[in-house]
What we know:
elongated, mainly alpha, single chain
Amino acid sequence: MNARNYIRRGKIENEAAGYLELGMAQQALSSLSRLGDPSALDATGLYILGESLRSLKRFEEAIEPLRLAAEAATDNIQVLLALGWCYKRIGRLDLAINTLEQALAVEPGEPLLRYNLACYFSLAGNKNRALRYLSQTLSAAPDYRRLIDDEPDFNPIRHDPDFQSLCRKANEG
């Protein structure tokens, strides 16, 4: 790609990212469409495309650009989080969990990854792993406790005595 096209692509990606940041996902897609075939996008463009589709709740469509962005930018946990989020919404908890575990290998101290893994393991019926990740989240970031009561992903384990005990301890801490 020549320098002029590289600069043009960067400007269009920045414009699309701006639209996305403003909650204008459809406009972000329109901007990206000026670049032509999505297969020619770099990791940034693929991520913006995937995030735009995800924002529009077009989860199945978002997976391919996010997967390609994750392959190109293996250390970008935002891409992996978005990809895992889409997998969850299409009912592929196995892939959502695998994706977030990849992200955790990149950023082992990130509580958001552990919180989401706790949610996904709860939905998958793996109480022990859900509680382990939730406990780790609350140890690292106690403010996550405020999210638990309204989190429907914990409904499968919400009335479990171990879950309730963990929540009580978090409230006391």
